[in-house]
Amino acid sequence: MNNTDLERISAETNTIDRLEPQETDAIFLLRSDTASGQECAELLKAFLRQSLGLKNIKIRKLPGIHYQLDQGSSLEQMGRQLKQLILDCKEQKQAVTLAATGGFKAEAMILSVIGHQLSVPVCYVHEQYRSLIYLPYFQSPDPSDASPDHSATVSLPFSGRPRDTVMNVSDVSHHRPRTWTKVAQMLKKQSWIDQVSYDPSAFSAPQNGVKTARNKNQDGCYCFWLHLYDDENHKIAVTVETTGHTEQHREYSILFLREQIGRLC
């Protein structure tokens, strides 16, 4: 099964595929208090295990979240349950991302509110969308200055490369996607990004998305594929070389890049 299949099957599989979960990651499927919610969650769990090899998948029912919502107590209970789940993960030093895709609109709003309150990234994608959208942190006026909450304990080595030599991409601009200038500026500002260069292999990353490259660079550091796309005449694919060499570095780097791209695109 390829990425195109995962994009088309459902909004949920599209989102999870773009988040590039690792085998050791925990995925919580928050289902509505309905028979169809239970059925969908169980099917999605089985599919993710079989197709993506994910093993740590847990289903959590949201009591009272159904087609006849009351005046708010069920949503309040959902908010408390979600908040406790996030705090438990943070206590175990786990990075958290909330995917507000699918389900009732009220659920998506609660995820957004709790995510903003706890400084947890909240993303969203629809079957027809070309990119993973991240909701902004309103307390930060500059998107490139907004850091995910999980970055606090991660320190990547400095590149040492002058920032004006990071971009190893031609100056031809008439085929560039409209977001390229902003994205390039954001990349140059990150001291742990060593080099950005054109790489056709990066077209295998989701459109307007990021994916871990197959190989590290010659220094043993992680690289990421970045694919920006407006249409067939305005697209670009680059490899982003970083100074990160541990799994923690990789996790922080891709979460940071994915969130920034999701806000800029």
From TrEMBL:
Gene3D superfamilies: Hypothetical protein VC1899 like domain (Restriction endonuclease-like) (3.40.50.10770). NCBIfam families: putative CRISPR-associated protein, APE2256 family. InterPro entries: SSO1393-like (IPR013442). Residues 8-137 form the CRISPR system ring nuclease SSO1393-like domain. It holds the Pfam family Cas_APE2256. This is CRISPR-associated protein.
